[in-house]
């Protein structure tokens, strides 16, 4: 009985939505709230565009300028990654260490054995490093932002998807509650239902949650089946699959829609969305985005994470599927 109550509380928490208001350029009112409303509405035909690590083609990934850029593009969600420093501060970085994304090797070249792991560095040490652009070139002034700094930028302007962050759930929620952005943040994981329910149960107010299911892998299929068998209806499922040979994606998509959840697809690269010719690069190279993206809309997908946000948003606006109301 106790287990059932915990699960029920977690499910109800998935449907919370904020009510604060702020004017944003081009949209009267709280833009993030309007986006979240579409995310919660299974009948909305609005296609939510999530951008992977911000505008990493033009700015360092997971940086404040990369976030600001996708807001200007009209994106709905910025996907970010987080890790915790040695002094318990959450910062934005995809990797567990800072070698690839900063000038760490240059700063500490004379300190043999110096750890580059974020978990071993203090915030002061991390703020002493400069971020690198995608090409590996060190910037002049950009530093790794904290999650708090990032959320102050995104607040009421765009929703946030925190990847690689579920293990820090308590710290994330404490921060989102402090800043008043809990209803604007989505977090995801591959954790079992009971684990997620127990994590959320102590709180009256939780961030949005989405399970990640890799439907052509044993663990992913088992997780998806557990949601269906227990009748748990999440806000959305992030569905990953490697190829279309077995037709499984369309079958799974139909079951998700019948359940009343949204479908999130990653078109970042082929191995996440059905194989060769089905990803962002294929859409860019062929010159006709519809040849790639229309198949997902036809299957009922209404949330797409992309590395080509301008291309995808432009096409969606052209066909009338990306206008906030």
Give the structure's gist in a few sentences:
The relative contact order is 0.15. This protein has a single domain, classed as TIM Barrel, CATH 3.20.20. An 8-stranded parallel barrel has the order 1-2-4-5-6-7-8-9, surrounded by 6 helices.
Report on this model:
The protein is α/β, with parallel strands linked by helices and 325 residues long. The chain has a single domain (2-81, 149-318), classed as TIM Barrel. It contains 13 helices and 9 strands. The chain has helices spanning 2-13, 31-40, 64-73, 104-107, 123-127, 147-154, 169-179, 193-200, 218-230, 248-259, 280-286, 290-298, 309-318; strands spanning 48-52, 77-84, 90-92, 159-163, 185-189, 208-214, 236-240, 262-266, 303-306. An 8-stranded parallel beta barrel has the order 1-2-4-5-6-7-8-9, surrounded by 6 helices. The chain is globular and about 60 Å long. 43% of the residues are buried.
What fraction, in percent, of the residue positions are helical? 25-40%
Mean pLDDT: 92
Compute the gyration radius: what is it?
Answer: 20 Å
What kind of assembly state do the chains in view correspond to?
single chain
What is the number of independent domains? 1
The CATH homologous superfamily is named Phosphatidylinositol (PI) phosphodiesterase
Q: What is the fold's blueprint, element by element?
A:
Blueprint: H1 2-13, H2 31-40, E1 48-52, H3 64-73, E2 77-84, E3 90-92, H4 104-107, H5 123-127, H6 147-154, E4 159-163, H7 169-179, E5 185-189, H8 193-200, E6 208-214, H9 218-230, E7 236-240, H10 248-259, E8 262-266, H11 280-286, H12 290-298, E9 303-306, H13 309-318
Parallel strand pairs: 1-2, 1-9, 2-4, 4-5, 5-6, 6-7, 7-8, 8-9
Antiparallel strand pairs: 2-3
């Amino acid at each position: 009985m106790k287990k059932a109550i915990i699960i029920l509380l977690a499910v109800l928490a998935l449907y919370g939505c904020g009510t604060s208001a702020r004017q944003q350029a081009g949209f009267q009112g709280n833009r993030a709230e309007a986006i979240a409303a579409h995310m919660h509405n299974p009948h909305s035909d609005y296609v939510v565009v999530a951008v992977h690590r911000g505008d990493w083609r033009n700015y360092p990934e997971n940086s404040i300028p990369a976030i600001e850029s996708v807001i200007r593009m009209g994106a709905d969600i910025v996907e970010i990654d987080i890790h915790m420093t040695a002094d318990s501060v959450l910062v934005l970085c995809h990797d567990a260490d800072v070698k690839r994304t900063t000038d760490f090797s240059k700063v500490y070249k004379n300190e043999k054995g110096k750890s580059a792991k974020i978990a071993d560095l203090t915030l002061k040490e991390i703020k002493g490093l400069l971020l690198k652009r995608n090409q590996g070139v060190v910037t002049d002034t950009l530093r790794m932002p904290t999650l708090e700094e990032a959320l102050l930028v995104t607040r009421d302007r765009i929703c946030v998807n925190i990847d690689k962050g579920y293990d820090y759930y308590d710290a994330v929620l404490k921060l989102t509650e402090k800043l008043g952005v809990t209803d604007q943040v989505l977090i995801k994981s591959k954790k079992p239902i009971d684990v997620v329910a127990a994590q959320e149960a102590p709180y009256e107010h939780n961030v949005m949650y989405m399970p990640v299911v890799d439907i052509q892998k044993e663990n992913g299929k088992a997780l998806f089946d557990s949601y269906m068998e227990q009748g748990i209806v999440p806000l959305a499922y992030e569905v990953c699959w490697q190829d279309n040979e077995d037709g499984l994606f369309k079958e799974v998509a139909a079951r998700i829609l019948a359940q009343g959840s949204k479908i999130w697809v990653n078109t970042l690269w082929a191995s996440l969305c059905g194989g060769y010719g089905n990803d962002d690069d294929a859409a860019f190279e062929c010159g006709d985005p519809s040849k790639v993206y229309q198949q997902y809309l036809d299957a009922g997908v209404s949330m797409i994470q992309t590395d080509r946000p301008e291309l995808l948003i432009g096409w969606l606006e052209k066909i009338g599927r990306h206008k906030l109301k």
